[in-house]
Amino acid sequence: MTKVRYENDIQTEVLKDKKIAVVGYGSQGHAHALNLRESGYDVVVGLRPGKSQQKAEEDGFDVHSVAEAVSQADVVMVLLPDEHQTAVYTESIKSNLQPGNAIAFAHGFNIHFSQIVPPEDVDVFLVAPKGPGHLVRRTYEGGAGVPALFGVYQDVTGNAAELALAYAQGIGAARAGVLETTFQEETETDLFGEQAVLCGGLTSLIKAGFETLTEAGYQPEVAYFECLHEMKLIVDLIYEGGLENMRYSISDTAQWGDFASGPRIVDEDTKARMKEVLTDIQTGEFAKGWILENQANRPKFNAINKKENNHQIEKVGKELRELMPFVKQPLQAKQSKQK
Ligand code: NAD
Ligand code: MG
Ligand code: MG
Ligand code: MG
Ligand code: MG
Ligand code: MG
A Gene Ontology MF term for this entry (predicted)? Predict the structure, then answer.
């Protein structure tokens, strides 16, 4: 089994007298900055003027331009949207890094796909929490943490791994466990997971089930409950105790249906297509498409997004959720982005 590190396995001295710039104050940024400060670290926030800036100032941070924050800091954590990192790096980060500084990321995309090529005289590491930023913050406040992956791309000081681990400890991740990875593994598995299973696979499965029932003449409201609403209840059971725990809870009829029909839905052909998706990720084909799509101001992304938001399941869902106020707990509503 791979080694999982906890608080007692980690030396934090290496980060203690360093200044940390958190660049970006969104989902991950606010959580890292607040948790690190409460763990006793010296944190500045780097941002462009706007809504996030106001929020960071209200939270009591010294907020500077990205260039200024980077020049003050020893460790720079880049928590901008992945699509904007390259431009901000080129314009405001690169020339303000000093030899022996460290630059860090919460996702390996831009380093792995060479959109950012860091100077050779800085450490480069990754601390990727395996959960949305608002959970990284909320669990820390509750005395716990969200597990994280850490990895080193470039180690010039000889301390890059220790720095990454101390950072992971600072955001609370070592309370839950920290696992070692590489930029390549984190990037490729993260992209595959969200495309094939968590986001792409799941939304397509839900919609196909919903459409099959409604096209056969069943009520959309009933189809919504069966194919979407109940998903969370099932996933919670799997999260708590694996597939076995879920199957223990459901009726034996449901379990027999799982065994008899599940493999007819997701079969060897599906798996072969999953392998194609993985190949596109590994070869950089997916990255290239996404980078070009952004350069063209997202024509396809926006068109598909509009169409998806008008799907019947979204309209029915909106009406039904109005009748179920318990579904929308305030915090969950804000945790919009599990990426
Ligand atoms: P986000 O969109 O929530 O926040 C981005 C922040 O960057 C905002 O504060 C925004 O104001 C600021 N920003 C945007 N453009 C800027 C610019 N040009 N100059 C200065 N500031 C700018 O982003 P996020 O979801 O927190 O993602 C940050 C990183 O964390 C990404 O690498 C992402 O892959 C990674 N990550 C995110 C999650 C998650 O739960 N959202 C989970 C794991 C890893
Ligand atoms: Mg992920
Ligand atoms: Mg049922
Ligand atoms: Mg059972
Ligand atoms: Mg989004
Ligand atoms: Mg992702």
Answer: magnesium ion binding
Q: Which residues pair with 78 in a beta bridge?
A: 23, 105
ipTM for the whole complex: 0.94
Closest CA to 149 of 167, 132, 126, 166: 126
Q: Which domains does the chain have, with CATH numbers?
A: 4-182 (3.40.50.720), 199-266+297-334 (1.10.1040.10)
- 179 CA distance to ligand 2 centroid (A)? 14
- On whether the CB atoms of residues 118 and 154 are closer than 8 A, the answer is yes
Q: How many CB atoms are closer than 10 A to CB 330?
A: 6
Probe target for ligand 1 pocket from 22, 25, 27, 70, with the most ligand atoms within 8 Å of CB: 27
Q: Is the pLDDT of residue 254 over 80?
A: yes
Residue 209 has pLDDT above 70, yes or no: yes
The count of residues in the chain is 339
Name the token pair of 183: 């930029």
- Hey, how many other C-beta atoms are within 10 angstroms of the C-beta on 138? 17
